[in-house]
Design a protein that fits this description.
Blueprint lengths: L9 H13 L20 H15 L5 H4 L5 H20 L1
Helix pairs in contact: 1-2, 1-4
Protein name: Carrier domain-containing protein
Organism: Segniliparus rugosus (strain ATCC BAA-974 / DSM 45345 / CCUG 50838 / CIP 108380 / JCM 13579 / CDC 945)
Keywords: Phosphopantetheine, Phosphoprotein
Length: 92
């Protein structure tokens, strides 16, 4: 099941892939505007997806920022910010 978007947005691709891998049935075509609560994932599936993203990129996602996540795009923004923070740490 290939859920990667056509755009070269790594963060959004990671979110799509993680949500697709924890789905118990064929997930719908995801959109950044979709509310995560409306996608039918339970809390365990969401935690598994978050853990998969963290392990894939090797950074911890900010729990403070995750509290405000409502949409798939919001989650991608948190991933993007975490990746940017990690690269600043490596460069700085």
């Amino acid at each position: 099941m290939d859920l990667l978007p056509a755009a070269d947005d790594i963060a959004l691709g990671l979110v799509y892939e993680a949500l697709g891998s924890v789905a118990t049935s064929e997930p719908p075509e995801l959109s950044p505007d979709w509310e995560i609560a409306d996608l039918g994932y339970d809390s365990v599936q969401i935690l598994e997806a978050l853990t998969q993203i963290e392990e894939t990129v090797g950074v911890s996602l900010s729990q403070q920022k995750l509290i405000g996540v409502r949409t798939v795009g919001d989650l991608a923004d948190v991933v993007r910010a975490s990746l940017a923070g990690a690269s600043e740490t490596l460069v700085g």
